[in-house]
């Protein structure tokens, strides 16, 4: 049913004269310019109307009952209860008559009473009559006045009652009957009684609430808090100065009647936080666009807060409060929703997007003392991640803009996006994306060995896919990411596209070409045979053994012989290990015999790459490094990896600047190991830098000028072997001078000298004219087959 708008006809500037049957004389009448919705009308709005006509705090206001005359129809307004009574009395009428009386002009002309016989007729219940006259029969006020809770916040709407001095009893009684010429007794109106009462009260009248009454206000407003200015030109106009809620108070909020808020959302959040801090559960009994009523979730608990918008202002105000809870603490609070948790715990989610659910539950219990179901916590974390990272589907439409901005910020970078279009009338569908930062490419070429590890890993988002990566090794034997690509799956076509783009991005090959090491992923081998047939290609021995074992060749002995063959530096040692493996198992020997040994044994490696690496731990390290990014939307994932690399480069630069040596830390450690092993070697100098070294009954030839050893370890790695180390020391030289240039601090510095430049936020990205691609179809990835779950 539609609500009623009330107009107020305001009588002001006069007095109520009993000699004229309680008529309002000596003033004028105006229609207040603004109507009020009856459901939003409260004592605060009445006070506002009084202030507009220059009335002071403590002045009186009456309304006339529409069905009664002036002498018995004037009703005093002092509280919300009286305002509700007025609205009910008006019934279907839309105009209410208000009569304003100033304490300074109150005059009842008592001389007219001396001509009549006054018969004292004291009421049987004097206190009850006084309470009824002051509006204290309201159950709310009975509860307030009977409460012993010192923290009870009395409603400032009761100006003239609870804040004023106690009324003095009149000598003629609270209720009197006046008899004139034996006529029927005529009851005096509320206005007449109140005017008599007013003269016996403190002439200053009741005061408006001070700062201590309405909240914790300091004498000086902080400079960073915006407050409404005082209108010094409003003479004779004394508005309430109600407090304005500040966002800084939200952690430990305090409220009072009349407090102002910028929005209903701010009010609701304040009430939620206030009750959550004390362990109480609330609900919003009324929660529409105009007014909000808050009650306790526990039946019969008296707690209640009501607020509504101030007419003509963008201000929401508390109109009444009953702050007392008589319920016990609640440990399961429905106001703690998943959305609320996502919002309030956002700092934690930003620092730990994948925070464990148990840790999240413990933190909420510690802060607010509530217990939250696990599923609600999972939903909260998912919502927070969505807020932080955005939608997986939506981000595919942003890849063009992101790539253009990244290329602008990092000049020389190679970023390619490949889309497919099923039909001309349909939008393009995202297929692949190549990301090669200029700093990574130039740093790799300037400061790393020509060794590239290739690998792929699953993406964990809803659209799956694979992330392919190319990783090198820096001078300190740490992984060095070169480039990556997001593709639909590990296929010959996708691997071929990635390798072809990578080779083109890197440019001219070094002397001896590139050396690749991989895990023999599906589609990679045929792609490499087609695109880089003449480059050195290695197989990760760990994955080789996994396939070897899965083929039925199990056992510790076979494993040891395979590893011995893989790590042998000479062909003679390799063949010896293979013969021993053959003696253990002919099928195992036959399995390995068909695999080119140059792909998995050090004895067959070239000496250009200066690496004896037989396991692809380069890529494994990178996959672990980006683990937390693999479940994020595509742009967020790439941006997370870029940011990690940007910070990593700077940390490396700082570490390099503090390192005081000519070779890198890990190579220093390896030289110390060579020193320990060299004590078992006995050198014999033959001249011209050549030595014969005896070690455990075997003899090795070392040539310091050519930097070679017949064990081939020095040749392949570029780091002096134990045989060479003892010869170098024998010659009174520093072994560090015989370490290959690839391991120098100069090369280490060159790898991290290029900068990965920072990126602006999304609202500052370049806008491209390319048609925005849509998300790809979800493709089942190769891997272990799903098994039916046992119930």
Quick check: average pLDDT? 82
Radius of gyration over all CA atoms, rounded: 44 Å
Report strand %: 15-25%
> What is the number of strand segments?
26
**Major beta sheet, specifics?**
7 strands, mixed
Count of folded domains: 4
Structural class: alpha+beta
Helix content, binned percent: 25-40%
The number of helical elements comes to 27
Keywords: Metal-binding, Zinc, Zinc-finger
Domain SWIM-type: 700-732
Pfam family, one: DBD_Tnp_Mut
Region (Disordered): 109-131, 160-238, 768-791
Throw out a few tags for this protein.
alpha+beta, Ubiquitin-like (UB roll), 7-stranded mixed beta sheet, 6-stranded mixed beta sheet, 27 helices, 26 strands, disordered C terminus, Transposase_MuDR, zinc ion binding
Task: Describe the fold and architecture.
The chain is of the alpha+beta class and 791 residues long. It folds into four domains: 1-209, Roll (Ubiquitin-like (UB roll)); 247-389; 406-647, no CATH class; 663-743, no CATH class. It is 34% helix and 17% strand. It has 27 helices and 26 strands. Strand 25 (698-703) and strand 26 (708-709) form a beta hairpin. Helix 11 packs across helix 12 (374-389), helix 19 runs antiparallel to helix 20 (571-584) and helix 20 (571-584) runs antiparallel to helix 21. It is elongated and about 140 Å long. The chain starts with a strand and ends in a 39-residue tail after the last helix. Residues 107-127, 143-239 and 786-791 have low confidence and may be disordered.
Strand-helix topology:
Blueprint lengths: L4 E8 L2 E3 L5 E3 L2 E4 L4 E2 L5 H10 L7 E5 L5 H4 E3 L3 H11 L4 E7 L15 E3 L6 H8 L5 H8 L30 E3 L10 H11 L10 H4 L45 E2 L2 H14 L4 E6 L3 E6 L7 E6 L6 E7 L15 H7 L1 H6 L5 H12 L5 H16 L2 H4 L3 H11 L4 E7 L8 E8 L1 H10 L3 E8 L7 E8 L5 E9 L4 H15 L8 E4 L5 H8 L4 E4 L1 H10 L5 H12 L3 H14 L1 H8 L23 H9 L8 H25 L6 H13 L3 E7 L2 E6 L2 E6 L4 E2 L3 H5 L4 H9 L14 H8 L39
Parallel strand pairs: 1-8, 18-21, 21-22
Antiparallel strand pairs: 1-4, 1-5, 2-3, 6-7, 6-8, 9-10, 11-15, 12-13, 13-14, 14-15, 16-17, 17-20, 18-19, 19-20, 23-24, 24-25, 25-26
């Amino acid at each position: 049913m539609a609500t009623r708008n009330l107009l107020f006809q305001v009588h002001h500037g006069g007095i109520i004269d009993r000699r004229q049957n309680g008529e309002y004389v000596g003033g004028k009448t105006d229609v207040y310019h603004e109507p009020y919705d009856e459901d939003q009308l409260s004592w605060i709005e009445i006070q506002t109307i009084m202030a507009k006509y220059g009335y002071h705090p403590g002045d009186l206001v009456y309304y006339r009952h529409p069905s009664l005359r002036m002498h018995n129809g004037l009703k005093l307004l002092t509280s919300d209860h009286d305002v509700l009574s007025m609205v009910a009395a008006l019934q279907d009428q839309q105009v209410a008559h208000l009569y304003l009386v100033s304490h300074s002009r109150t005059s009842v002309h008592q001389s007219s009473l001396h001509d009549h016989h006054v018969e004292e007729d004291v009421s049987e219940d004097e206190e009850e009559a006084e309470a009824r006259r002051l509006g204290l029969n309201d159950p709310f006020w009975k509860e307030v006045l009977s409460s012993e809770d010192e923290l009870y916040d009395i409603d400032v709407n009761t100006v003239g009652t609870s804040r004023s001095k106690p009324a003095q009893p009149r000598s003629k009684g609270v209720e009197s009957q006046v008899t004139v010429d034996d006529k029927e007794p005529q009851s005096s109106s509320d206005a007449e009684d109140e005017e008599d009462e007013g003269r016996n009260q403190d002439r200053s009248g009741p005061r408006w609430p001070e700062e201590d009454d309405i909240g914790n206000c300091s004498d000086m407003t902080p400079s960073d808090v915006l407050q409404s200015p005082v209108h010094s030109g409003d003479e004779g106009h004394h508005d309430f100065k109600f407090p304005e809620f500040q966002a800084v108070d939200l952690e430990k909020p305090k409220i009072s009647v009349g407090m102002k808020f910028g929005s209903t959302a701010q009010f609701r959040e304040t009430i939620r936080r206030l009750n959550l801090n004390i362990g109480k559960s609330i609900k919003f009994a009324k929660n529409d666009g105009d007014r909000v009523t808050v009650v306790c979730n526990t039946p019969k608990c008296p707690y209640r807060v009501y607020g509504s918008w101030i007419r003509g202002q963008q201000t929401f105000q508390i109109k009444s409060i009953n702050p007392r809870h008589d319920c016990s603490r609640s440990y399961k609070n429905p106001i703690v929703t998943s959305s609320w948790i996502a919002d309030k715990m956002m700092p934690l989610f930003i620092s730990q997007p994948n925070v464990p659910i148990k840790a999240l539950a413990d933190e909420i219990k510690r802060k607010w003392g509530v217990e939250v179901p696990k599923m609600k916590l999972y939903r909260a974390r998912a919502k927070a991640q969505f807020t932080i990272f955005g939608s997986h589907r939506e981000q595919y439409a942003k890849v063009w803009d992101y790539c253009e901005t990244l290329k602008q910020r990092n000049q020389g970078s190679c970023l390619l996006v490949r889309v497919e279009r099923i039909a001309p009338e349909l939008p393009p569908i995202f297929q692949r994306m190549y990301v090669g930062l200029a700093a990574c490419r130039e740093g790799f070429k300037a400061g790393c060995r020509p060794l590239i590890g290739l690998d792929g890993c699953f993406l964990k988002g809803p659209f799956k896919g694979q992330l392919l990566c190319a990783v090198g090794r820096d001078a300190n034997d740490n992984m060095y990411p070169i480039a990556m690509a997001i593709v639909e799956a590990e296929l010959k076509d996708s691997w071929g596209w990635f390798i072809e783009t990578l080779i083109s991005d890197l440019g001219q090959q070094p002397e001896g070409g590139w050396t690749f090491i991989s895990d023999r992923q599906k589609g990679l081998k045929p792609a490499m045979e087609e695109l880089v047939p003449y480059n050195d290609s290695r197989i990760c021995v760990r994955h080789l053994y996994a396939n070897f074992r899965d083929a039925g060749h199990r056992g510790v002995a076979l494993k040891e012989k395979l590893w011995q063959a893989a790590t042998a530096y000479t062909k003679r040692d390799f063949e010896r290990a293979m013969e021993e493996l053959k003696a253990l198992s002919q099928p195992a020997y036959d399995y390995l015999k068909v695999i080119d040994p140059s792909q998995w044994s050090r004895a067959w490696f070239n000496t250009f790459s200066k690496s004896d690496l037989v396991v692809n731990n380069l890529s494994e390290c990178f996959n672990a490094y980006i683990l937390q990014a693999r479940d994020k939307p595509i742009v967020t994932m790439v941006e997370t990896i870029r940011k990690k690399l940007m910070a990593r480069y700077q940390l490396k630069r700082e570490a390099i600047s503090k390192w005081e040596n000519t070779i890198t830390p890990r190579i220093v450690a390896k030289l110390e190991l060579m020193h320990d092993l060299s004590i078992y070697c006995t050198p014999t100098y033959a001249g011209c830098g050549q030595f014969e070294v005896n070690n455990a009954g075997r003899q090795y030839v070392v040539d310091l000028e050519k930097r070679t050893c017949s064990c081939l370890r020095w040749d392949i790695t570029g780091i002096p072997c134990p045989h060479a180390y003892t010869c170098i020391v024998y010659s009174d030289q520093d072994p560090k001078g015989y370490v290959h240039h690839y391991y120098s601090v100069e090369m280490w510095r060159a790898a991290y000298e290029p900068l990965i430049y920072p990126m602006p936020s999304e609202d500052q990205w370049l806008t491209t004219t390319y048609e925005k691609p849509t998300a790809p179809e979800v493709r089942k990835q190769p891997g272990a087959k799903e098994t039916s779950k046992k119930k």
